[in-house]
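Quick one: structure tokens for this chain, please?
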Amino acid sequence: MSAPEERGALTPRPSSLYACALRVEQAEPEGPWCLADAAPPVPRRVPSNRARRDFTRTRDELTRLLGPLLVAPDPVEAAEEAHRRLDALDPPVRHRTLRLLVAGMPVENEERARALARVLVRTGTSCSAVSTGLALLAELGEPQDVPYLRTLGLLRTLVYPVVHALDALDRPAGALLELRNHREPVTFGPLIAALEAGDRTAVRQRLVALPGDLAPEVARRVAEASGPADLLAEVPGLPAPEGAELIARTGRLLFLMTTLRDYRPEILSYPDAPRAYEAFARGAGLLPRTLDHHALLLSAVQELSTGPAVLHDWGPGRREAALSELTAVLGRPEWRAVPDAGAGDEPGVRWRVAWVRRTRARVLGAAEAPFARLRIAIHERDPDDPATVEVRVLVDGRPLVPDYFGRGPANSPEELLFPGTLRATDEPREVRLAEAYCAEGCCGALYVTVRRDGDQVVWSGWRCPVPPGGTRELSELRFDAAAYDAEVARAEGDESWMWPARRAARLIADGLRGRPDLLALWSVRLDWAGTAFRDPDETTISLVYDADNGHVRQIIWRIPEDGTSPEDRAAAALRRLGEEDLRAYGR
């Protein structure tokens, strides 16, 4: 039996995680996941009694611990010391936080830091050490590092740190790895196999066969892995039906990436978006004239005019050229007739046809409007993928909310326009332009103070969330007062985007603001007025009141479509509110 002091030398050094990944690769070269990951079990650390880590303090601590190692001449010794220091952290730093912190560290000698990162990635025996190396390679890596990262990606515990590093070095490889790790592998298995085999014919076929309701991030990863812009370059040599299907699939992926239900539109994380939009626009004329395709083209025009896609680095004239090609197709007589041919009694089809009819003229006209410093556009998304109606504010052609905030859509016309919220007066007024998709109490909101200053209107005093450990300075915006007033008045008076139930909601809200006695009669307050998310024909009014226990209670009043005009429906609702306590018929 060995003495206690000798046992450390006799204990075998654990295998590196990269060596474990190599065993998986050699045992299963086709790439199916190994449930045990072929890695030795990592013992659970005793839970620490320390409070949750503070981001800034952790950043300073890691900079102090790892900073000197980034310039050490011997990367092997530096890696061993990094292991010891990272393992000694109590409580340990989560992988995502570690990535954010390491990525922000100052690097004085890139060559030595890169050498340290490679040693950590290839010899590291703990997730924290390997994740540190991966975070450094995301900033300093080179193409020669990609094969090692792909191999490490075979270990489940390292998938997302590896994906982040691959995104910086080989984005299609990172997308492919994330798709392999998707919770529905059967859905993407055929496409993944085609991509790994390099069979472009099979890639086109498998891409078209995917479901049309992919989640926004999944749609982006599919596009990054398959490269639809390059695939569309092959359309002239394909049979017409196959080429049209590929064009439509590209348009659908782009549409899904622009959904407003995510904190940050995925289209902003898709660097190849300009090329994909250009390829889609070039092939638009080859699409069969159907309601689905008409909606795809119209949605693309919306996004290229006022949406987050505008924020990409397009270069001179490219976005305008794509817009011109799309509007030219939609302007053809045969495409103008599509909504009439697609009309039907089914609610979903009826809503979509109505959306196309009221959106078409407004969007196509706005796409050809002259440039203005301030532009306010009402955006209503295709009912096939419903979302809230938002007020898109563009300054110098750039959509302000995704540029300044990016955690949710802009507020609705009922919040920003109809009460006169954006009007400028001599008295400064703080305006909430957007709220995070979850809630303001969770991830914040975007506020600005609007005031009139002589012949100018000033937006200043911005309030919005700041990234952890970071700072954000938003500049003051100034507008010509006359032009500003005219644009706000135009947007307030534009009802071309409204449908009957939405107009009834506006009339009811205006009536309640004009007759505060109706609300005072039942001790309630107007919260908001709009339409049901899943049933646009249903007018929905939200009112609140203070309960006896001190809590605020909400009453939802649903007013169904009854065949009458919006004016008659609103008048009947206001009349009923003056005669009956809404607690009897509201929910």
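Residues 32-44 have pLDDT under 50 and may be disordered.
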